[in-house]
Design goal:
By secondary structure, this protein is of the alpha/beta class. Helix content is 48%, strand content 15%. The strands form two sheets. Strands 2-3-1-4-8 form a five-stranded parallel sheet. The radius of gyration is 17 Å and the shape is globular. The mean pLDDT is 95. Bound molecules: adenosine-5'-diphosphate and zinc ion. Adenosine-5'-diphosphate (ADP) binds next to helix 2 and helix 3.
Length: 215
Amino acid sequence: MNIILLGPPGAGKGTQAKRLVDERGMIQLSTGDMLREARTSGTEMGKKVAAVMDAGNLVTDEIVIGLIEERLEGDNGAGFIFDGFPRTLAQADALGELLAAHGAKLDHVIEMQVDDDALVARITGRFTCADCGEVYHDVTRPLPADGKCVNCGSTEMKRRADDNEESLKTRLMAYYKQTSPLIGYYYAKGNLKSVDGLASMDEVGASIAAILDQG
Ligand code: ADP
Ligand code: ZN
């Protein structure tokens, strides 16, 4: 089963994708994670996209489509979770073609609905474990008193360069202008489902599980 998690920055796509990886063995394809990896590995492409990402703008369709194309070869039968991709109509068309070329299809597009105030609060307090990627929040999910990651025990945490108020404004604008038209696109194709992204992590997880279990 192949699904897209669609929603604005901070909607919780990555959190839910990780759950699905753990619970169902699906493969998470996060273009944001791939691009951040490319940056730290110092490739030409990584250098090219760094400034674009930090400002909160979208990198070119060509780059992200190329990244996804490579990863589709790693199909394990449990399905892919597209997280942060597609973000433009051109990317959505390309994904449809790539899947078709692999004899696969998109089963569900799950829109995670969250209002802007909640997004700003979520994102500006967000940090992650530098070693395992566990997600924390200054207010809603601080580190335990010993300062160690609950998952791996590391004390090294990091914050994303684009998780600041200025870049977030640009990211939200990019979402409304370039990505939100995908809601209509997938609605018209008949595979759009919506969940309340403001519910608790477990409730959102349960809503998504219900969609996947219904087939
Ligand atoms: P967010 O938490 O804002 O949803 P991501 O981690 O998915 O962020 O992506 C971070 C940044 O990486 C984006 O702001 C954009 O610059 C770039 N990016 C990620 N995915 C795409 C994509 N599919 N198309 C264009 N740019 C992308
Ligand atoms: Zn950790």
